[in-house]
Fold:
Amino acid sequence: MAIRLVAMDLDDTLLRDDWTISPRVVKTIQKAQAQGVKVTIATGRMPISARPYAEQLELDVPIITYHGAMIQQVISGEILFRRVIPSPLASKIIQDLSKRGFYAQIYLKNRVIAQTLNEWSQEYARIASVHIEETDLSNLLNQEPEGVEKILVIAEETALGNLAPLLLESYGERVHITKSKPHFMEITEGTVNKGVALDALAKRYGIAQQEVMAIGDSFNDLEMILYAGLGVAMGNARSEIKEKADFVTFTNEEDGVAEAIERFVLNVR
Structure:
């Protein structure tokens, strides 16, 4: 079947290492859209951080943010889907992480907030081009009636690898835990992932699962790669992701997204 919807991860997929989109990728996406193909972004980033790229590409489809916890229109900012970690549960997780000595940030719509800023927060702010607020997280969560889209834990990869099973043992199916980068552990509400969000978006447009292509590089992309009729892993993807994909394209530095769209959407060989 022809591909009618393409979903792309941002970091290390659509974006080069300098966080820009190559001219070839921009041109290829515009060609696909001109042929009536829906193209969207599916990222772990917050909406305000993803929006400039969506605007650059002139995407006319809502974008998936927070690993699927929020689907939002780019231009109007209208929220079409939002699922949060309830405040009492988020508070308990934050307290647990603090006791274990881990740095964590919480995400509330277009805000990112930490208990205390440090070198991890400075690096994240530089990468994502966002402002990180510093405030008492317990007080904030006690006053938040709904909850937060995401909790991000930043630490060395080995430490995160040891932490994940402990959190799953404590919180089970109430949370979904994944990784976007080796030192980024992402925690969302238990039913949330990019695959679920992509399915909801496809159904919104009457597009069959077999007509969807998903492109990504890391563990947080796995569910959408498995969901899509055509799951594509970047050449720079984790080996575990490549093994699950239907096709492995070039790296993010070699216009891998353009290569995949040209091959499977525009039928350029």
